[in-house]
Specification:
The protein is α/β, with parallel strands linked by helices and 304 residues long. The protein has helices at 5-9, 15-31, 61-76, 91-100, 116-126, 140-147, 160-173, 189-204, 220-233, 250-260, 278-284; strands spanning 48-52, 79-83, 105-108, 129-132, 152-155, 178-183, 209-215, 239-242, 268-272, 287-291.
């Protein structure tokens, strides 16, 4: 099974459209594919069940909108999306649960790369096709292992390194020079690529520096405390970049910390992944910009 669509998915097309295309690949392959892989028997006209490793109701507004858009997609295609329920950090257990629910294919996002060989074996044994959405595989050996499987359908992802360069350049244009980054664990592929772009751009732009990188926020209160500590530790800091966080209200917590330190006039925030109440935060003035996936949140009919 060829993976020629990978390069196409990396171009600047609609993230949801690319997701729909990869879903279509799963639907087509589940209906019958040449080669050694044999999918579970699916008759023409049968409803296809695609499992997702994102809960149906995440607090984060972008993913709530994504789920609403997928509901619209399911009205146009013979497909039902199965969700993983409550957030579970163990992707292997989530995949096993989705298989028990009768998934014909599984779309995975947010996982540790070391889990992928195990997931690959589970899906092969269950004869379930799987792929990654909004995610990339950084480890070459793990990528090769997955791509050797006839049940691996491929992945969709953004150019996160370029997005990192873009956000850092925007901060520079806003006059920010002394920055702190708040990010996820080092295993988080998306954040790692964003950080690579940020650090590359900071080396090219005169007078700008990254003072510190803080990882693994626990909740909104932790985001506030981390922000307050950064402001105290680095009086010269004039900006914070939220590279990414699994905490839905991370941006709100950072804004809370800036306000509590009465630093609204000297510390700004820029984020990836549009936070809830984006317009209100921009109007307030502390949030100076955001880089994200707009088509996760717009009217889904725009995608047609």
């Amino acid at each position: 099974m060829e993976k020629k669509w990978n390069a196409f998915f990396r171009c600047r097309t609609s993230p949801l459209l690319r997701f729909a295309l990869l879903t279509a690949v799963l639907i087509c392959t589940a209906s019958g594919i040449s080669g050694q892989a044999q999918a579970k028997a699916v008759k023409p006209g049968d409803e296809i069940r695609i499992g997702l490793t994102l809960p149906e109701t995440l607090e984060n507004g972008a993913f709530r909108s994504l789920n609403a858009n997928l509901d619209c997609l399911s009205e146009e295609l013979p497909v039902t999306f199965l969700y993983s329920g409550e957030r579970n950090s163990d992707t292997v257990e989530t995949v096993e649960a989705l298989i028990r629910q009768g998934a014909d294919g599984i779309m995975i996002s947010r996982m540790e790369e070391k889990e992928l060989p195990v997931i690959c074996g589970i899906c092969e044994e269950a004869q379930v096709f799987w792929g990654l959405f909004l995610w990339d595989i950084l480890d070459d050996d793990i990528r090769a292992f997955c791509e050797a499987s006839e049940y691996y359908a491929g992945n969709t992802c953004e150019d996160e390194k370029e997005a990192g360069r873009l956000l850092l350049t925007k901060a520079y244009e806003k006059g920010l020079r002394r920055l702190a980054l708040i990010s996820e664990s080092e295993w988080h592929a998306t954040c790692r690529k964003r950080e690579t772009g940020i650090l590359a751009a900071s080396a090219e732009l005169p007078g700008i520096s990254v003072l510190n990188i803080v990882r693994d926020l626990a909740d909104r209160e932790d985001a506030q405390i981390v922000t307050e500590n950064l402001i105290q530790a680095y009086p010269e800091m004039d900006g914070i970049l939220l590279v990414g966080s699994i905490v839905p209200e991370a941006a709100a917590g950072i804004l809370d910390g800036i306000r509590s330190m009465e630093a609204e006039d000297r510390v700004s925030l820029l984020t990836f992944d549009f936070p809830d109440q984006l317009a209100a935060h921009l109007e307030e003035g502390i949030l100076k910009g955001s880089c994200g996936l707009p088509l996760l949140a717009v009217d889904p009919f725009y995608l047609s």
